[in-house]
Amino acid sequence: MKNKFFKFVLILSLLLNFSFLGAVGYTHYKRSHPPVAASLSSDPRTSYLFQELSLKPEQLKLFQQKASSFHDLLSKNRQEVGQLRKSLIGFLRADNLDQRAIDATITQINSRQQDTQKMVVAHMLEFKSLLNKDQQKKFLDLVEGAMAKRNEVASPACP
Asked: Based on the structure, what is the number of domains in the chain?
């Protein structure tokens, strides 16, 4: 009786461990392989945008060209911020804190994030300039809706 119980517990433990390892592996894979900007039309978010705005083929082609270089720059900025955050954690781990280095790293992170925000706004304005008035209104409505959803997720209402 004890043997069967221990075998069952062992098998259950192995299944849980493999499930956990699979989930960790999948999460790591998804984080290390972001969607490729060159295949924008296969990205459900941009496909939805293209459909919602009823882009003409020439608008679509132009947007895809501009978006590719934009996403490359955005990815580069994200990587730089990630590296800065890693170095910040390194400074925080040190036994003797270097407050100047911590402050300088925070300043650099803020600067990169501000640069990124400016790039996003400039990209949105450039994209907006390629649209007619009706498309512009739809585009800004979609952006506003996405921002509202993001704010709800980031700071849910208190009960």
From this structure: 1
